[in-house]
Design a protein that fits this description.
This protein has nine helices and seven strands. It is α/β, with parallel strands linked by helices and about 240 residues long. The chain has a single domain, classed as Spore Coat Polysaccharide Biosynthesis Protein SpsA, Chain A. Helix 3 crosses helix 6, helix 5 runs parallel beside helix 8 and helix 7 runs parallel beside helix 8. It is globular.
Length: about 240
């Protein structure tokens, strides 16, 4: 089992250094994905990549969105020979003190996807928290299960072989819809999901790229596509549910 961290970065130059330091303290190789950042952040990433041989930089020519950055980063991790990749945000909102527990779970269950179940502090906007509940409901409908308690937290460990296979066969959402869609589609393919509680803070550098209107529309469209995908798979999903109960 060879694990690296994939960090999508879009103008989080003030916070990404602390995230990388925490990852390297765990001896995790890092793949930083510069998602079309401005020059100041790009220079920070250049310095980080030049500081250690185990910090790799993938630079996208223009902003692709979080999903586009994660797809590029996970594909790069696979090309480098890693079997697993830990996804973590660059803004410091994820509690790096939980890294050891996430990695231990992945080590114990190498075929499973380990995902974070957020515990929010007072810094989390109420509008974002309430909006997540509707998304959770659609995930439970579209998987016919409660296996995924939170599909929106971007703190997770992927087993790379089924993820790369999915990328090669399905076009996924490339912005904030990616985190949800990739979990639902992997669940459809039989990948085991294991949730683990983690503290979430909003965000260290005060920069959020979630666009309330545009991203909520994208997520709503994504749930609609997944719903019809679930209907097409309904007999098989029901058979799998009965046979494993």
């Amino acid at each position: 089992m060879l694990t690296c961290a994939v960090v999508p970065v879009y103008n989080h130059g003030d916070a990404v250094g602390q995230v990388v330091a925490a990852l390297r303290a765990r001896q995790l190789p890092c793949i930083l994905v510069d998602d079309g950042s401005a020059a100041e952040c790009a220079r920070v990433l250049d310095r980080l990549a030049a500081s250690e041989p185990d910090i790799h930089l993938v630079r996208l020519p223009s902003n692709q969105g979080k999903g586009g950055a994660m797809i590029a980063g996970l594909q790069a991790a696979h090309r480098h020979g890693f079997t697993h990749a830990l996804q973590i945000d660059a803004d410091g909102q994820h509690d790096t003190r939980d890294l050891a527990q996430f990695l231990a779970l992945a080590q114990a269950h190498p075929d499973a996807l380990i995902y974070g179940c957020p515990r929010y502090d007072a810094s989390a906007p109420k509008s974002r928290r309430y909006g997540r509940y509707a998304s959770h409901l659609w995930v439970w409908i579209n998987t016919l299960s409660l296996d995924i308690r939170d599909a929106m937290c971007g703190f997770r460990v992927y087993p790379l072989p089924p993820v790369i296979e999915l990328f090669n066969s399905v076009k996924l959402g490339r912005r904030m819809d990616f985190d949800v869609e990739v979990l639902v589609r992997l669940h459809w393919r039989g990948v085991r999901m294991i949730g683990h509680p983690t503290q979430v803070h909003y965000p260290l550098d005060g920069v959020s790229h979630f666009q309330i209107w545009h991203d909520n529309v994208r997520i709503s469209r994504m749930h609609t596509r997944l719903f019809f995908g679930m209907l097409a798979r309904l007999p098989w999903l029901l058979w799998r549910k009965v046979s494993t109960s």
